[in-house]
Amino acid sequence: MSDFVYDLIGLAAGVLFILALKGLSHPRTARRGNLLGALGAGIATVVVFFHGEIENLGWILGAIAVGTIIGVPAARRVQMTQMPQLVALFNGVGGGAAALVAIVEYLNLGDKATTAVVIFTVFTVVVGCVSFSGSIVTFLKLQELMTTRPVVFPGGRFVIAATLAAVLGSSAWVVIELGTTPLLVVAGLSLAFGILFVLPVGGADVPIVISLLNAFTGLTVAASGYVLNSTLLIIAGTLVGASGTILTRMMAEAMGRSLFGTLFGAFTAKPQDTSGAVEDRPVRSGSADDVAILLNYARRVVIVPGFGLAVAQAQHTVRELADLMISKGIDVAYGIHPVAGRMPGHMNVLLAEANIPYDQLVEMEEVNPTFGQTDVAIVIGANDVVNPAAQTSPGCPIYGMPILEVSNAANVIFLKRSMRPGFAGIENELLYDPKTMLLFGDAKASLTKVVSALKAL
Amino acid sequence: MELTAIAVISIFTLSIFVGFEVVSKVSSTLHTPLMSGANAIHGVILVGAIIVCSHASTTLELSLSIAAIILATINMIGGFVVTDRMLEMFKGKKGAEK
């Protein structure tokens, strides 16, 4: 195949990627968009075998088979609740792959590498490694294999600044001196920087960081495209880098977070005690019967689903409860916070899985003004998204995040497993409010009890 | 063919604008699938991994590039599959609206 034809097919794949991103931006065309993207990637992968000399063909096909055997079942079997961390992991391995590609090409070129190629190689290695190790940390945080609270240690900001300086210094070393050892030093330091960079990020901000690292990986792919002289990789990588940056900004806006504050939290965060002296205060806990009675006499009920609902796999039970209330003539709506779940839009996916009618899902801006006329707000496995501290206490990690103003409802019911604070690790004042009733226990078990109590009334 | 500097800069700049433009207005409902889809697209680094593997000459180069192919394949194929699973849910929603 001639270079011209090869590049032309590469361009076609690039166009398919643009159409994919465009399609993914609208609900109706999203699925087709994703398939167009897969088609583009498939074409690009197949044609590379028909261009130039391919040695090690057996190894290449074997490695692709291994990757498929690992990737497909992981993507198929993952619980919808655990999807954000899987995306983080996929992004991380992509960054790692880009860094490895750059290292191999560097070894291969040896003295033939021009300064520009070396600079782009170093860029790919640095950003790819940061994306790899950073994504692993976000995975560990979301999987709750490590604490979800910001990890801040004394002098942390100096350690981070020093590591960053070391990364930049050793990068300059590679460009001037060349050689394999300096490049490996750069890779090691970048891996360390990726870890240090994500550790101080609090649980609620993790999705923003994943999105940012996604954009980073895109840029590394673009840079490796320059090194390998591949137009397709430059186009695809830049597209993802640019759209990922915009997406990161939109996510931060939806969560009411400043991007700058999230990124440089490491340099401003101070160790803080998140609990305060509120723990010993009394709370009002009730039984399933108490909840059922409250609901039975309500005219309007708003259900606020959170991640705890999904973890307990209670989507179907909550739907049963909603249907029962509707049959009793009660006006029912679901108040969906933009970041309910673990990521923007995650909750919509989880509820759609349980076939909850779309018109009952009300977005935050629309549901907030109606809480004044709401008799009961049921908060199921959510905490941070209804925490008034986001409006009242500057200094707390979620301050400024828009919340569902359930405290304006006449009664608030919390279904919780325990008094443990939410993902962001912040105490919720609303739990101690006199109009709040708590029903402790697994969300699914509690809801089942409420449903049978309500049926009996 | 060898790319000239100005060609690279042009491709890069225009791609940035296209990238900004295509996702400028997206409802928060689609943020997660869009991120996941974009994530799968950068799995096309698989092409780069195949290219470097195809001319790897030492054992070190070969083993590193094989690792790169495995990682890139996971990123690309896994990414598209998981995005499709997410979007399947949205289709189910349409059925419920009837």
Output the keywords.
A: alpha/beta; Rossmann fold; B: mainly alpha; 80% helix; 0% strand; disordered C terminus; EC 7.1.1.1 (chain B)
Nutshell version of this structure?
The complex is a heterodimer of chains A (457) and B (98). Chain A is 59% helix and 7% strand. Chain A is of the alpha/beta class and 457 residues long.
What order do the helices and strands come in, and which of them pair?
The complex is a heterodimer of chains A (457) and B (98).
Chain A: H1 3-24, H2 30-47, H3 57-77, H4 83-109, H5 115-142, H6 156-177, H7 180-198, H8 206-228, H9 231-254, H10 259-263, H11 265-268, H12 288-296, E1 300-305, H13 307-311, H14 315-327, E2 331-336, H15 346-353, E3 361-363, H16 364-367, E4 376-380, H17 389-392, E5 411-416, E6 436-440, H18 443-456
Parallel strand pairs in A: 1-2, 1-4, 2-3, 4-5, 5-6
Helix pairs in contact in A: 1-2, 1-9, 4-5, 4-8, 5-6, 5-7, 5-8, 6-7, 8-9, 12-18, 14-18
Chain B: H1 5-22, H2 31-41, H3 45-54, H4 59-97
Question: Can you offer a commentary on this structure?
Answer:
Chain A: GO terms for molecular function: NADP binding; proton-translocating NAD(P)+ transhydrogenase activity. Chain A: It is an enzyme of class 7 (translocase). Chain A: Its EC number is 7.1.1.1. The complex is a heterodimer of chains A (457) and B (98). Chain A is an alpha/beta fold and 457 residues long. Chain A folds into 2 domains: 78-268, no CATH class; 288-456, 3-Layer(aba) Sandwich (Rossmann fold), CATH 3.40.50. Chain A is 59% helix and 7% strand. Chain A contains 18 helices and 6 strands. Chain A has helices at 3-24, 30-47, 57-77, 83-109, 115-142, 156-177, 180-198, 206-228, 231-254, 259-263, 265-268, 288-296, 307-311, 315-327, 346-353, 364-367, 389-392, 443-456, and strands at residues 300-305, 331-336, 361-363, 376-380, 411-416, 436-440. In chain A, strands 3-2-1-4-5-6 form a 6-stranded parallel sheet. The longest helix of chain A has 28 residues, at 115-142. The termini of chain A are far apart. Mean pLDDT of chain A is 87; it is low at 269-278. Chain B has 4 helices and no strands. Mean pLDDT of chain B is 86; it is low at 92-98. The N and C termini of chain B lie far apart (55 Å). Chain B has a domain at 32-97. Chain B has helices spanning 5-22, 31-41, 45-54, 59-97. In chain B, α2 (31-41) runs antiparallel to α4 and α3 packs antiparallel against α4 (59-97). Chain B has 98 residues and is mainly α. The longest helix of chain B has 39 residues, at 59-97. Chain B is 80% helix and 0% strand. At the A-B interface, α1, α2, α3, α4 and α8 of A face α1, α2, α3 and α4 of B.
